Automatic annotation (TrEMBL):
Positions that bind substrate: Q72, H73
Gene3D superfamilies, alphabetized: 3.30.420.40
Function comment: Catalyzes the phosphorylation of D-xylulose to D-xylulose 5-phosphate.
EC number annotated for this UniProt entry: 2.7.1.17
Catalytic activity: D-xylulose + ATP = D-xylulose 5-phosphate + ADP + H(+)
PROSITE patterns: FGGY_KINASES_1 (PS00933), FGGY_KINASES_2 (PS00445)
Residues forming the catalytic site: D228 (proton acceptor)
Domain Carbohydrate kinase FGGY N-terminal: residue ranges: 5-213
Gene Ontology MF term list: ATP binding; D-xylulokinase activity
GO BP annotations, alphabetical order: D-xylose metabolic process; xylulose catabolic process
Signal peptide: none
Top-level class of the enzyme under EC nomenclature: transferase
Name of the protein in its database record: Xylulose kinase
Length: 472
């Protein structure tokens, strides 16, 4: 008899649910619902979207186990009674950039964070958001009895939200908080206190295949869940030599590793993965939305943008887009804006602008790959995923800019698939996750175009800051 498991991806822009065959990973049904826009969101909206995505996926009545993967770092503060204290600040909210600088200095600089925690905090990291809260909303900080992450909160809701003691998480997502150390494999409550101003309840960190209770009213087993990038690596079955490159709201390059990263520059975040290993990761604030913005500027849809980009020459005749539309995290430039360089009468063309957008996105990801390699990751194969991988121009231009063959597995929601694989693992009780085959991949190869990266590198630092107080 076929046993079904479900995986959830509660990511920045939407919630996706896949119901799959626990033995093979084949998708049986799926659903999706949008999240509200913005960098602070009432968690209740995630629950509404989850319910709607579950309904669209035909419900969970016949499902034996469920796990939730989710956007990392988001700060969810709960009071004594388990009520949300204020809307969650998401990973892409930059207001805590100053708090990040302060926290880095207070512990003794980036080296101290990299060596003790594995992560050098930037505005994305939860502990900096707690510091911002303590400084700007002391009443909210004072009422905060527990802090958890988006996926922790949804797992807790699915289990019936039975008291703060029942909150659970996993190593993968805990390692993105800034107060859980990959060196100690434990929370650093002293750093939580440094952020929030007082200690608070944090979710119990479960093992990769440890049961987290059951879905209230249904009885399906709950897995511990994990961060979306750890879930994507599990869903793609990433192994040695694989680098997962994701083009979602964030741009991400990450690799599964036996050893934790300790990057003193802070560019590579030394996260944990969802299998008991590690996930060195480099993330940008700008990725798929670069393409969305280019579509708006050109008045075309994604297919139109792709056609335009592919009709322009490599390097877009010298037109370069530095794509820091939301400020940037890699490099750390939270106040920066995007810019176009190299405009001439010849390059002031829709096709050139489209090409520059695609190349700007890929050049910023190539910088992420370089940083991973500099920290010891070996790149034999790039596994491309996320919504932006649906662009033919991205898939065809990627190998020339990234300098590696790019494998684009058959279009699936790989974060949700990874969460489902975790659920199947918990259900099986086996030592290893089920050996699901990776769906066939389109392999894209091309000669490298180092001149495209060189021109981008020359433009990368030439950006204007945002203007405080000026409406956009
Ligand atoms: N055909 C396409 N070409 C390029 N981008 C696309 C295409 N289809 C969807 N996208 C973009 O992918 C993004 C959503 O990707 P997703 O990985 O689901 O994001 P997230 O996980 O951050 O919510 C959106 O910005 C959307 O516009
Ligand atoms: O901040 C990070 C990783 O450190 C992001 O990857 C978030 O986890 C959001 O992911 P998407 O919703 O963009 O996929």
């Amino acid at each position: 008899m076929t046993r079904l498991v479900a995986g959830v991806d509660t990511s920045t822009q939407s919630c996706k649910v896949v119901v799959v065959d626990a033995a093979t990973g084949d998708v049986v049904r799926q659903g999706r619902a949008s999240h509200p826009d913005g960098t602070e969101v009432d968690p209740a909206a995630w629950l509404v979207a989850l319910r709607s995505a579950i309904d669209e996926a035909g419900g969970l009545d016949d499902v034996a186990a469920v796990s939730v993967g989710g956007q990392q770092h988001g700060m969810v503060c709960l009071d004594d009674a388990g009520a949300v204290v204020r809307p969650a600040l998401l990973w892409n909210d930059n207001r805590s950039a100053g708090a990040a600088l302060d926290l880095v200095a207070e512990l003794g600089g980036p080296e101290a964070w990299a060596e003790q925690i594995g992560v050098v905090p930037v505005a994305s990291v939860t502990v900096t958001k707690l510091r911002w809260l303590a400084e700007h909303e002391p009443d909210h900080a004072g009422r905060t009895a527990a802090v958890c992450l988006p996926h922790d909160w949804l797992t807790w809701q699915l289990a019936g939200a039975r008291g703060l003691d029942a909150l659970v998480t996993d190593r993968g997502d805990a390692s993105g908080t800034g107060y859980w150390s990959t060196v100690d494999d434990a929370y650093r409550h002293d750093l939580l206190v440094r952020g929030l101003g007082h200690d608070a309840q944090v979710p119990t960190v479960l093992g990769p295949r440890q049961e987290a209770g059951a879905v209230a009213g249904l009885g399906a087993i709950l897995g511990p869940g994990t961060g979306d990038n750890a879930a994507a690596a599990l869903g793609l079955g990433a192994g040695p030599g694989d680098v997962v490159v994701s083009i979602g709201t964030s741009g991400v390059a990450c690799a599964v590793s036996e050893v934790p990263a300790r990057d003193h520059s802070g560019i590579v975040a030394g996260f944990a993965d969802a299998t008991g290993r590690y996930l060195p990761l480099v993330a940008t604030l700008n990725a798929a939305r670069i393409l969305d913005a280019a579509c708006r500027m050109l008045g075309v849809d994604h297919d139109g943008l792709s056609r335009l980009a592919l009709s322009a020459p490599a390097g877009a005749g010298g037109l370069v887009m530095v794509p820091y539309l939301e400020g940037e995290r890699t490099p750390v430039k939270p106040d920066s804006t995007a810019s176009l360089h190299g405009l001439t009468l010849d390059t002031a063309e829709p096709a050139h602008l489209a090409r520059a957008a695609v190349e700007g996105l890929l050049c910023s990801l190539a910088d992420c790959l370089d940083a991973l390699e500099a920290q010891g990751s070996v790149v034999r194969r790039v596994l491309l995923t996320g919504g932006g991988a649906a662009s033919e121009a991205v898939r065809r231009i990627a190998p020339s800019v990234l300098g590696h063959p790019v494998h684009v597995p058959h279009r699936l929601e790989y974060v949700a698939r990874g969460a489902a694989r975790q659920a199947a693992w918990v259900l099986s009780g086996e030592a290893e996750p089920p050996a699901w085959e990776l769906p066939t991949a389109e392999v894209s190869e091309a000669d490298p175009t180092p001149q495209v990266r060189a021109r981008y590198a020359a433009a990368r630092e030439l950006t204007l800051d945002r203007t405080p107080g000026v409406a956009s």
